[in-house]
Specification:
Chain A: InterPro entries: DUF6691. Chain A: Keywords: Membrane, Transmembrane, Transmembrane helix. Chain A: This is Transporter. The complex is a heterodimer of chains A (about 140) and B (about 180). Chain A has about 140 residues and is mostly helical. Chain A has one domain. In chain A, about 65% of the residues lie in helices and about 0% in strands. In chain A, helix 2 packs across helix 4 and helix 5 packs antiparallel against helix 6. The longest helix of chain A has 22 residues. Chain A is globular. The termini of chain A are far apart. In chain A, about 55% of the residues are buried. With about 180 residues, chain B is mainly α. Chain B is built from 8 helices and no strands. The radius of gyration of chain B is 19 Å and the shape is globular. The relative contact order of chain B is 0.10. The chains are: A mainly alpha (about 140), B mainly alpha (about 180).
Chain lengths: ~140, ~180
């Protein structure tokens, strides 16, 4: 049953990613040109609501659908890994015009060359694993 | 119901993305798509060579299912919930892209210059490979991507995620403004 729920959440997410045009290479380019509010509106409104939702869950001590306590893992403190990793990610995001969510969306939407991007992203992740201990974190 | 077939405006899409994060939190999980790239490495056997990939991938099975759902969602949206694939970007951006050689700007969902499966040239293949490598490497180095940092992390007021998102934008701006003029 839980598997069906995860699949369903993913389906909804894929539909949103496609219909919002957040999976469009053009929208990403336009965002980095600061020529439209669209992408900023998407991220900004998701964020405002997200902050309120998480604060409510924390303050009201809301339990999960299964009655379990909800745990928010804080991100490890660092500057270099987030800044360097972030810049490298941003370079790729603008070049391929897709971050990991939209990559999967575009595969379903039938843009087969995105397979090249997905396979490369898996290899990029593997290369990070190889070099992890040599990088500043 | 016609609005469903039109592109969805930001004030519909953004709150729905927050809703996805909410659903995942409420089933005891978290919203982060790039973790799946690491899990895929592990499924392919990377754990035998590199410790970073040595974990029981079945603990991440739920997130792989979310990713499979995302593929299905993309299929449903593109084939059953859309009557046009044109993305109406700003007209200045269209002319800028035309100058760079992207004739498909303002006429399609993705640039056919990079994503046309019938007409893939060496240059576009290399661009897609480098783009993918950077996304995969950078996401894991930064410990998350747009969903994990820009949505989940910032919603939880994590300073680390703010640094990562600033990084995303520095990288994106360098690519679009400094590197695009050199490669296109």
């Amino acid at each position: 049953m839980r598997s069906v729920i995860y699949l369903f959440i993913g389906i909804l997410f894929g539909i949103i990613m496609y219909k919002s045009e957040a999976s469009s290479w053009f929208r990403i380019y336009e965002m980095f040109q600061f020529k439209a509010f669209h992408m900023y509106g998407i991220i900004g409104s998701a964020l405002v609501i997200g902050i309120i939702v998480i604060q409510l869950i924390k303050r009201l001590n809301i339990k999960s659908f299964y009655g379990e306590k909800i745990h928010f893992a804080p991100k490890a403190k660092s500057f270099s890994r987030y800044m360097y990793g972030g810049i490298i990610f941003g370079l790729g995001w603008a070049l391929a015009g897709a971050c990991p969510g939209p990559m999967f969306t575009l595969l379903g939407a039938g843009y087969l060359p995105i397979i090249i991007v997905i396979v490369s992203a898996v290899i990029g992740t593997y290369v990070y694993g190889l070099l992890k201990d040599k990088l500043p974190h | 119901m016609n609005w469903i077939f039109e592109p969805w405006p930001w004030y519909v899409s953004g709150p729905l993305i927050a809703f996805i994060m909410f659903l995942l939190i409420m089933v005891g999980k978290n919203f982060g798509m790039s973790s799946n790239l690491r899990t895929l490495c592990t499924i392919c056997g990377a754990g035998n060579k590199v410790d970073f990939f040595k974990f029981d991938w079945k603990t991440q099975r739920w997130n792989i299912l979310v990713a499979v759902g995302t593929v299905i969602g993309g299929l449903i949206a593109a084939y059953f919930l859309s009557n046009s694939e044109v993305v109406n970007i700003n007209s200045d951006v269209v002319s800028k892209l035309n100058d760079l050689g992207f004739e498909s700007a303002g006429k399609s969902y993705l640039p056919t210059e990079l994503f046309d499966s019938n007409d893939l040239n060496m240059k576009s293949i290399i661009i897609l490979i480098i783009g993918g490598l950077l996304v995969g490497f950078g996401a894991r180095y930064a410990g998350g991507c747009t969903s994990g940092h820009a949505i989940s992390g910032l919603s939880n007021l994590q300073l680390s995620s703010l640094i990562a998102v600033v990084g995303f934008f520095i990288g994106g701006l360098i690519m679009v403004h400094l590197i695009f003029p050199l490669i296109f």
